[in-house]
Amino acid sequence: MDGPNVVRRVAAVVLAAAMCGWLSTLAPAGERVRLAAARGQAPAAEPEPEAPKPKPKPPPPDCTRVKCLALTFDDGPTESTGDLLDILASRNVKATFFLVGQNVVENPDLVRREHQAGHEIADHSYTHADLGRASKQEIVSELTRTQDAIRQASGVTPKLLRPPYGSTSKRLAKVTRRMGMAQIMWTVDPLDWRHRDTEAVERRVLKNAKPGGIVLLHDIHPTTVRAVPKIIDRLAAEGYVFVTVSELFGGKLTPGEEYTELNSGEGQGLP
Ligand SMILES: [Zn+2]
């Protein structure tokens, strides 16, 4: 083989390789996979789409100065939760959801949706157990399974627990302290689970709302979800600002302690 021929062949190979590389940068992703496959290479893995993160929120109001109220929804998520999320989104209201672990496992998409919309996600035990009467072992199991299910669905580790029935004990306080969760009670209970009556729920909440309060509702009842637009619109017209439970207390909640309302009258910010 003479000198010039070798040079020509090398040049041709280099040119072909360069063209191939150039073409593959021009080709769309699908084409690149086919080109790579045609060259006998494994296609480069496409990057995983990242889960959308919640939008950055404006700083919460100072609830020792502003008329704040926390709407809380227990026992979900379930079908009617989707309707409630639409209502809250249309009014730009953030709420707190105390979730039952076994419902989280059934409806992880709704938990993600709650989190992505900027609501606070919290724990309400795995089986809606009476934690005040439960053994230490039962408490740990109920709370750990719920925390794990919520973390798996949304990436969030809740910092709040609402004990079902408001039933608590020294034992529960000890476990929640160790697990980093404050216990959250309420100031307004319209008994929406007993009386499935939209107007009665509206009336009772509107009558008993007060600044620094926490409203107990259940998004598993469509009758309750239908009461939410009027509750928000009326109270907003009275100057109320709706916040999550952690926002209500300015983020100053101590694990293991029980909280019922923000007692802003004493200027302490804590009950
Ligand atoms: Zn409950």
Structure description:
- With 271 residues, the protein is α/β, with parallel strands linked by helices.
- The chain has two domains: 3-38; 68-266, TIM Barrel, CATH 3.20.20.
- The protein has helices at 3-26, 29-38, 79-90, 101-106, 108-116, 136-154, 170-179, 198-208, 222-225, 228-237, 245-248; strands spanning 68-74, 96-99, 120-123, 160-161, 182-184, 213-218, 241-243, 258-259.
- Strands 1, 2, 3, 6 and 7 form a five-stranded parallel β-sheet that branches. The protein has a three-stranded parallel β-sheet with strand order 4-5-8, covered by helices on one side.
- The radius of gyration is 27 Å and the shape is globular.
- The structure holds zinc ion.
- The site of zinc ion has 5 residues, from loops.
- The CATH homologous superfamily of the largest domain: Glycoside hydrolase/deacetylase
CATH architecture classification name of the largest domain? Alpha-Beta Barrel
Instruction: Count the domains.
Output: 2
Name of the level-1 CATH class of the largest domain? Alpha Beta
**Rg over C-alpha atoms, rounded to the nearest angstrom:** 27 Å
Main β-sheet, in a few words? Answer: 5 strands, parallel
What ions, cofactors and ligands are bound? zinc ion
What name is given to the CATH topology of the largest domain?
A: TIM Barrel
What is the tally of beta strands? 8
